[in-house]
Amino acid sequence: MASNGHHAADAAAHDLTIQRYKEYVNTSFVAAIEPVAIAKAEGATIWDQDGREYVDCFAGIAVNNAGHRHPRVIAAVKEQLDKVVHGGTYIYHVPVVAEMAEKLAEVSPGRLQKTFFGNSGAEGIETAMRLAKAYTGRHEFITLTHSFHGRTNATLSITGNKARKTRGGPYLPGIAFAPVPYTYRNPFRTEDPEEVAERCAEAIEWAIQFQTAGDVAAFVSETVWGEGGIIIPPASYFERVKDILDRHGILFICDEVQSGYGRCGSLFAIEQFGVNPDIMVAAKGIADGFPLSATIATPEIADCLKPGEHLSTFGGNPVSCAAGVANLAVMLDEDLPGQSRRKGARTLEHLKALQEEFPIIGEVRGLGLMLGVELVRDRWTKEPANTEAAAIRKFCREHGVLVGVGGQAGNVIRFQPPLVISEDALDHAVATLREALVAVAGPVGAAAD
Predict the structure, then answer these.
(1) Cα separation of 225 and 118, whole Å?
(2) Beta-sheet strands, E only, within 274-417
């Protein structure tokens, strides 16, 4: 047990970190910063500078999929640090970079083979857009409402989440939007997922015909919409969409930044929907916390850019690629996608039990360990319970569980923990959520229809 002196010193260090953030780090871009000054993280557990322990159910926004500081990833990074830290991969050939690209080609769906490495999901999506325009000779894009693809000007232009776009325009021209296949909230007033899939796919055809100049290079979509509120597409949606795209010669850019790397119960979530993308972007979980993105394309698309047209100074950093190689080995050797699938299905059932108990829960949904609990003030009107969601997140944090909040209205509790999290830790997180629901939503009662 720490002495009182040590505890006081830890508390002072914690407070100093928070104060420095307030004074020197620009945090105005987000509504609130969690007052947790992290001292150490391992697996699915975080300790702050006060020594307080937290169950991490957000994984740095779905980044540390293999867990914080996985020993194999850390060992690979340490080994690479003794070799090469930066090489400018467009000038020098660094072995680990080529190895990472080869490994990605082996596990990516369809004919995806060649990778351009960047540093973030936004950079990866911009690369995909550039490739699509260069390959097709076209210049327009179709994307979806509720989507989120990054915070650069181009990626915000194709983002449908209004909350992420405020005060940033004007955005790029040539962008058409179709409705996301959000069964719980859709413009067609139906609760049938397959009807939603059909109508939303038809809306893409409509967008091609009436919102564009017939110059569409690509359709850009997440497989599961994370920032949009953990929206899971109906089973047939992407097959319906791909048929339309193929008829018009339009490429499919699949954004797997958040849904990929085991998060949804398969290495890439799109593998569960029966189609192969023309270009796919991975980031977040790709290197277990080290900055790296991968834009993976078929050979003919990847080779369409001319030398010098697109580069990245730090993209494909050898240290990040070493982390990526080790991280992918962990994914496969420990079957983290399978763990995600099994743990996610079990936790989803527990969350659905809470839905039966608490009328404030409008819907529970998820795929693997990408889980969302949508809160509403009234199940009939579906009025978003956003202030309640913020209060529940705060309660959970104060009681040692870190969760996220998302959705267009900020009313969806997000569970996206490291895939290595134990079932006991998940059970504890659900129990804490229940306590939060009691505290925020009032006494338990039979859920209203």
Answers:
(1) 22
(2) 279-282, 293-297, 361-367, 370-375, 401-402, 404-406, 412-415
Entry field: residues in the chain: 449
- The packing angle between helices 71-81 and 318-333, to 10°, is 150
Three-point CA angle 280, 284, 289, nearest 5°: 145
Residue-wise pLDDT for 207-220, tens only, equals 999 999 999 999 99
State the Cα–Cα distance between residues 96 and 81, nearest whole angstrom: 12
- Cβ atoms 403, 433 nearer than 8 A: yes
Q: What are phi and psi of 314, to 5 degrees?
A: -100, -5
pLDDT in tens, 154-170: 999 999 998 888 888 89
The token pair at 231 is 């929206």
Query: Cα-flanking dihedrals φ and ψ of residue 180, to 5°?
Result: -70, 145
Burial class of 434 by CB neighbour count within 10 A (0 to 12, 13 to 18, 19+) = middle
pTM of the model: 0.93
CB neighbour burial string for 314-325, b if at least 16 within 10 angstroms, e if fewer: ebbbbbbbbbbb
